[in-house]
């Protein structure tokens, strides 16, 4: 019942929890004093010594109501403060642990679940710290206090009540084990849902290419249905136990009341004592019953805590805190080995013995998958779980602190992460004190300064992942950042992949300029980059196969010589093809240029309000600009600048408009809703009339009206027993309705995202979208399970009670009606008004928090490398603090409204009692009737109080509903055509095509005209950012042209059946997206019904079959998150295998060999040569050796920049 370790995880919460418990006790004493005082005063009225409540009693009651309201407010505030303190503490601990684990955290937990644990996991612990723990201590104290207070005046009923109370903790203990297991299953299923959603969002372009989005949609629905069932299982346990506790609570209260009434009737108990028992009886059980409700509500949070503890308990590689300051560093490896955690495969590295002298230039080469990037991760300290010894100047790498290591080694990978924010902010990660001149100098060395100046300068805003830049532009900015870091050791890991020849030349010159001044290690597939190296290391199968200078290695017959010869052959072939095709490219350029000055060779300016996408690839990182309805995520360290989903474009809906849209979904489930309303109404009436029958019993025991006491006791017991099952039925129906609708909403949301992809999703914060699909949709449960039927129940119960009052004492009906309207209508509206936009800000902030956390995890390698983890953690704390400030503000208003409402209800109840007694004193009604009406009215506020609480709780719900509707209502960039023409590919054509990304000031393509005949291979050439990948996207119809037409087989693509179009096109994006399944599952995505022979043939063409067959599990080998268990070259070859398996007649290949070694490139080029006889190929590649297979080259540079090559 109490998790000591969880409580110790947030010591800051202890004092607020203690204060909350103390204030709960104060409120209880106030209630006890008030009821005893009322009992004695009313006893005097029944004895005829007075006719109304005396002023002293009224004053005491007023003070008690005020004390109870203030204590209630303080209790809730203290609980909220405890919850917030706990969330902040736990979130910080999770982030620090993830930083300690580094990129290897993925071996323990998926990125999606890590985000969920850090954000929603800590949020779900709110109930535990803010409600459950204070209530636990209070529920142990309250029955004892009540027993002590009632024992002197009503010993028998007090003992009966105390005896019944112990059944509730017994029930909690009985269900705890089952509840824990069910709750853990719930959390695991919820985490799976979030992981799958994030994975599909990141890979939606790939799914659309292979028309697999429909299949994944069904899988998502299956996962959502599994989550619904897991939720209902947890809810079933919760409702069953709560129902049983209701039976004990109300039945126990009825038992205590019956004992008191019998004793009153026998004359063994005074009126005041009987009154106190009747109206304090439920106070015995309410704390324990509330604990039971909170126990189950806290279980989901406690289930997440299990995963949090697993993460926090993950063993880290021991790291000491040695310091090392040196301008010149040598690096050495002795018997180094590395096996990826959780992998039973052959070690990726083994028996590596290498020396990297200070200020030397070392090249590392080998076939893709040889272990080169793994070695780079080991040398940089990002892969701590190595065996053997790695030392810098004789100091073991693991003995160095992370901060020290960050000052010694810089790695420049092929997929460097750029963060949302400005270029300045990204560069200053590496050098916080860098001047503008220093930053521009670094950009100039990398050949990207002119672009930056043209596009907006250092303050140019980048989207998440730099998705509004081309691949080459991102890579050069990342290189400039690395140069600013200025460490004695640099490791360049395929730093020139996917960039044009001119940029490659500039980067190569930068690397060569560092020779003799830095210890430089270059990992490359392009052997020319390491030709001048002092030493070249050849890796093969995870070990050093050869070592020596270029001159030495080419003289042998080893692997390097094979690679060199293969590359030389490819380059000679490329040179010959270039000479032969030179006239073709010139003619093509002139043909295009004759129409217009067409294409910008650089990306154009992106204003902070709206990015303009330059040339880029469609990939998992979503590299195009967003649509006109989307603003980019802004600077990562300025949370208020971040933009949530579609926030600027969609007109804000009123809460009423959102409610109207949401309520329409209930119509198919109306009969079930009617049943819930019926059961809820009867249940509330049972609770109310339990007190009514008790009041009748007191009147009978005191005045002897002739009513049957036994019948009244039976009726009271029946009401007490029925309340539990009726509440169970109502809640089960409500939640079944709610979670069926939530599953449906997830279905239509996923469908909307399919329609919007890829154009409207590129550049958007994926964490925010996942927040909508998980947290926002879950919040809609408040509307469907706790709003619709409670409103109906409150209306029906209020009408029935007014009828009852009218039949008993008609004169009180106006006051009762006014009271119900005040509490159930006026106060909720007022509560909603004072809440303002806090709920909306809270949900948008939650989305920002998830996006920021996701981006931090995706960029963990860069954060560690540049020693930026502390700054990023501070920003996370800042975002959390701002979010908590909004949350505390909203909850403060909610607590104030709750306290004020309790005081108002108490005052209305006392006013009704006094009014009823006044009517009795005037002879308008009988004293007994006045008593029954007054105290039945006091017990009848339950339904309308539920409405009052909706005034604040619905603020977040409507904000979440609005965020969901924003996505559902957004118009896709391109609508899929279902009734268009079906085609067989016979060629493609661009006819005066102009195109710009939404919101851009300049066009990427302008009046471009060219034809691609069937059976030809065409290469698109030009500088980075000139429009090559954009051309491929237009051929896929991921975007529509601004003017002109793209035609396939003579048909405008806007009139072609989308499924037919995609069936005719095979598109390989720059960055191959792999899903977290097996290698075989990833390849079969292109053709799920492929035979094993077809699968193997496709892999053979992609030169990846030998690799797969060498793996212990073959095609069943897990690819890992985003293909993280495979090298970049292996991922790219698997992507090619997917294309070959799809076997479309029209191939669009974007940098198909950028991460592949010369031997595998030769094999792939040969396979593509074999495909030319029956396929048409459009190729984008900065490798001349790959472009050599093209029959024609089409330049997309400006005519003045086109040289014909």
TrEMBL record:
**Broad class of where this protein is predominantly found:** membrane
Taxonomic source organism: Cryptobacterium curtum (strain ATCC 700683 / DSM 15641 / CCUG 43107 / 12-3)
Q: What CDD domains does the record point to? A: ABC_6TM_AarD_CydDC_like
- Give start and end of each ABC transmembrane type-1 domain: 18-300, 674-956
Q: How does it sit in the membrane?
A: Multi-pass membrane protein
Transmembrane segment boundaries: 15-39, 51-71, 136-168, 669-696, 702-722, 783-806, 812-831, 899-921, 927-948
Recorded hits in InterPro entries, A to Z, give:
AAA+_ATPase, ABC1_TM_dom, ABC1_TM_sf, ABC_CydC/D, ABC_transporter-like_ATP-bd, ABC_transporter-like_CS, P-loop_NTPase, Type_1_exporter
GO molecular-function term, one example from the UniProt record: ATP binding
Q: Where does it reside?
A: Cell membrane
Q: What is the lineage of its organism?
A: Bacteria, Bacillati, Actinomycetota, Coriobacteriia, Eggerthellales
Where in the sequence does UniProt note compositional bias of the Polar residues kind? 630-647
Q: Region Disordered: start and end of each range?
A: 597-647
Q: What SUPFAM superfamilies does the record point to?
A: ABC transporter transmembrane region, P-loop containing nucleoside triphosphate hydrolases
What UniProt keywords are attached to this protein's entry? Answer: ATP-binding, Cell membrane, Membrane, Nucleotide-binding, Transmembrane, Transmembrane helix, Transport
Return the Gene3D superfamilies for the record. Answer: ABC transporter type 1, transmembrane domain, P-loop containing nucleotide triphosphate hydrolases
Protein name per its UniProtKB record? Cysteine export CydDC family ABC transporter permease subunit/ATP-binding protein CydC
List, alphabetically, the GO terms of the cellular component aspect: cytoplasm; plasma membrane
């Amino acid at each position: 019942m109490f998790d000591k370790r969880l409580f110790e995880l947030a010591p800051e919460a202890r004092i607020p929890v203690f204060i909350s418990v103390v204030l709960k006790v104060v409120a209880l004493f106030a209630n006890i004093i008030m009821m005893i005082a009322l009992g004695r005063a009313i006893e005097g009225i029944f004895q005829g010594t007075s006719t109304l409540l005396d002023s002293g009693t009224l004053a005491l009651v007023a003070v008690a109501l005020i004390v109870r309201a203030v204590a209630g407010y303080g209790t809730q505030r203290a609980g909220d403060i405890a919850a917030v303190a706990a969330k902040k503490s736990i979130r910080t601990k999770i982030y620090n642990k993830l930083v300690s684990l580094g990129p290897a955290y993925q071996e323990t937990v998926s990125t999606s679940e890590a985000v969920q644990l850090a954000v929603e996991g800590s949020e779900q612990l709110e109930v535990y710290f803010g409600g459950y723990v204070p209530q636990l201590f209070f529920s142990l104290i309250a029955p004892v206090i009540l027993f002590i207070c009632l024992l002197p005046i009503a010993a028998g009923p007090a003992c009966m009540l105390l005896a019944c109370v112990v059944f509730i903790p017994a029930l909690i203990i009985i269900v705890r084990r089952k509840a824990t297991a069910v709750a853990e299953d719930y959390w695991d299923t919820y985490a799976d849902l979030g992981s799958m959603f994030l994975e599909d969002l990141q890979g939606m372009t790939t799914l659309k290419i292979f028309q697999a989005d429909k299949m994944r949609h069904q899988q998502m629905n299956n996962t959502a249905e599994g989550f619904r069932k897991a939720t209902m299982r947890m809810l079933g346990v919760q409702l069953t136990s709560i129902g049983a506790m209701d039976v004990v609570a109300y039945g126990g209260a009825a038992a205590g009341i019956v004992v008191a009434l019998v004793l009153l009737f026998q004359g063994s108990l005074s009126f005041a004592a009987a009154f106190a028992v009747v109206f304090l009886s439920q106070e015995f059980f309410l704390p324990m019953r509330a604990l039971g409700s909170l126990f189950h509500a806290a279980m989901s949070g406690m289930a997440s805590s299990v995963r949090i503890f697993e993460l926090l308990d993950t063993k880290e590689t021991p790291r000491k805190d040695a310091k090392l300051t040196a301008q010149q560093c040598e690096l050495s490896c002795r018997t180094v080995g590395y096996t990826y955690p959780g992998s039973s495969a052959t070690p990726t590295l083994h028996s590596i013995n290498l020396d990297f002298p200070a200020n030397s230039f070392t090249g590392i080469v080998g076939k893709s998958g040889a272990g080169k990037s793994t070695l780079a991760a080991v040398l940089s300290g990002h892969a701590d779980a190595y065996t053997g010894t790695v030392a810098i100047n004789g100091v073991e790498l693991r003995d160095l602190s992370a901060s020290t290591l960050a000052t010694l080694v810089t790695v420049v990978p092929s997929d460097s992460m750029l963060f949302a924010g400005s270029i300045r902010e990204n560069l200053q990660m590496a050098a916080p004190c860098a001047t503008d001149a220093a930053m521009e100098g670094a950009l100039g060395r990398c050949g990207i300064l002119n672009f930056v100046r043209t596009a907006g300068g250092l303050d140019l805003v980048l989207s998440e992942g730099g998705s509004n830049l081309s691949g080459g532009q991102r890579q050069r900015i990342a290189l400039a950042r690395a140069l600013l870091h200025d460490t004695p050791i640099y490791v360049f890991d395929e730093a020139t992949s996917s960039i044009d020849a001119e940029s490659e030349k500039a980067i190569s010159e930068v690397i060569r300029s560092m020779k003799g001044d830095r210890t430089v290690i270059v990992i490359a597939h392009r052997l020319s980059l390491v030709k001048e190296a002092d030493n070249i290391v050849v890796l093969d199968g995870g070990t050093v196969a050869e070592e020596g200078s270029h001159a030495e290695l080419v003289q042998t017959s080893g692997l390097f010589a094979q690679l060199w010869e293969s590359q030389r052959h490819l380059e000679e072939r490329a040179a010959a093809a270039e000479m032969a095709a030179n006239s073709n490219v010139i003619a093509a350029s002139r043909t295009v240029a004759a129409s217009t000055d067409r294409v910008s060779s650089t990306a154009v300016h992106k204003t902070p309000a709206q990015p303009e996408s330059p040339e880029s690839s469609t990939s998992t990182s979503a590299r195009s600009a967003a649509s006109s309805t989307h603003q980019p995520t802004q600077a990562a360290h300025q949370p208020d600048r971040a933009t949530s989903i579609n926030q600027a474009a969609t007109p804000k809906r009123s809460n009423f408009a959102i409610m109207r849209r949401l309520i329409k979904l209930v119509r198919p489930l109306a009969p079930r809703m009617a049943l819930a309303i019926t059961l809820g109404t009867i249940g509330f009436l049972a609770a109310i009339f339990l007190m009514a029958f008790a009041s009748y019993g007191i009147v009978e025991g005191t005045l002897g009206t002739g009513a049957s006491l036994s019948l009244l006791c039976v009726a009271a017991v029946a009401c007490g027993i029925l309340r539990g099952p009726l509440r169970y039925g109502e809640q089960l129906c409500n939640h079944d309705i709610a979670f069926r609708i939530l599953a449906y909403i997830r279905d239509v949301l996923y469908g909307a995202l399919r329609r919007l992809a890829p154009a409207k999703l590129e550049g958007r914060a994926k964490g925010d979208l996942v927040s909508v699909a998980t947290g926002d949709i879950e919040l809609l449960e408040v509307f469907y399970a706790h709003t619709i039927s409670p409103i109906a129940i409150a209306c029906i119960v209020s009408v029935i009670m007014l009828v009852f009052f009218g039949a008993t004492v008609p004169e009180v009906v106006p006051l009762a009606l006014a009271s119900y309207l005040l509490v159930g209508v006026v106060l909720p509206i007022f509560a909603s008004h004072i809440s303002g936009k806090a709920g909306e800000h809270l949900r948008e902030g939650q989305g920002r928090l998830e996006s920021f956390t996701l981006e931090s995890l995706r960029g963990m390698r860069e954060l560690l490398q540049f020693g930026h983890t502390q700054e990023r953690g501070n920003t996370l704390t800042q975002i959390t603090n701002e979010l908590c400030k909004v949350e505390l503000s909203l909850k403060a208003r909610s607590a104030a409204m709750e306290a004020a409402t309790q005081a108002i209800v108490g005052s209305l109840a006392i006013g009704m009692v006094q009014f009823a007694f006044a009517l009795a004193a005037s002879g308008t009604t009988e004293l007994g009737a006045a008593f029954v009406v007054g105290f039945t009215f006091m017990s009848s506020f339950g339904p309308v109080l539920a409405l009052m609480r909706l005034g604040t709780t619905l603020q977040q719900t409507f904000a979440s509903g609005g965020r969901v509707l924003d996505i559902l209502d957004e118009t896709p960039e391109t609508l899929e055509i279902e009734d268009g023409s079906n085609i067989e590919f016979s060629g493609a054509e661009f006819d005066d095509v102009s195109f710009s990304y939404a919101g851009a000031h300049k066009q990427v393509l302008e009046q471009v005209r060219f034809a691609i005949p069937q059976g030809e291979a065409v290469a698109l050439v030009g500088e980075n950012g000139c429009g090559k990948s954009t051309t491929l996207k237009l051929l896929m119809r991921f975007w529509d042209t601004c003017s002109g037409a793209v035609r396939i087989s003579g048909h405008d693509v806007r009139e072609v059946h989308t499924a037919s179009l995609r069936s005719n096109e095979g598109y390989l994006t720059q960055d191959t997206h792999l899903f977290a399944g097996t290698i075989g599952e990833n390849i079969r995505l292109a053709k799920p019904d492929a035979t094993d022979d077809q699968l193997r043939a496709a892999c053979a063409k992609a030169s990846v079959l030998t690799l797969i067959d060498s793996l212990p599990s073959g095609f069943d080998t897990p690819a890992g998150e985003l293909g993280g268990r495979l090298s970049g070259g292996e991922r790219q070859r698997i992507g090619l295998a997917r294309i070959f398996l799809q076997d479309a007649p029209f191939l669009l290949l974007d940098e198909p060999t950028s991460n592949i070694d010369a031997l595998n490139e030769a094999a792939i080029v040969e396979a593509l040569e074999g495909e030319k006889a029956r396929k048409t190929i459009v190729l984008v590649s900065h490798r001349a050796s790959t472009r050599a297979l093209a029959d024609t080259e089409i330049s997309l540079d400006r005519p003045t920049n086109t040289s014909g090559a």
